[in-house]
Amino acid sequence: MQQISMDIIGTRSEVRRRGGIIPSWVLFGIVLLATSAVCVTVNMRTRAKVKIASEQFASMQSDVESMRRANQVLKSEIDQLQHNPRAIESAARSRLNMVRSNEFVVPVE
Predict the structure, then answer these.
(1) Is 73 within the bounds of a domain?
(2) Domain residue limits at 58
(3) pTM of structure
(4) Which terminus of the chain is less hemmed in, N or C, by CB atoms within 10 Å?
């Protein structure tokens, strides 16, 4: 068995002289293929992370805009309550269940 493999491969000195059993261009191709596979994998993972981050950013932007609108509504309400007596009265009646001294409360069920 060993004699057959020696006939096919050759002696150690012959293998060393030829540059090994595997040609150098095959090794170069394997290294190139492995490097390409790593690059593609890294690129795909990075694109997925960028997509997720952009979706989160868009969601946060819409949240910020809705909070800004809510703040604007609250600011206008505060301004009305500070300067408009009718708004103050309306807020006192609806939120605090207050009535004037000459009014009667009739509970309705």
Answers:
(1) yes
(2) 22-96
(3) 0.52
(4) C
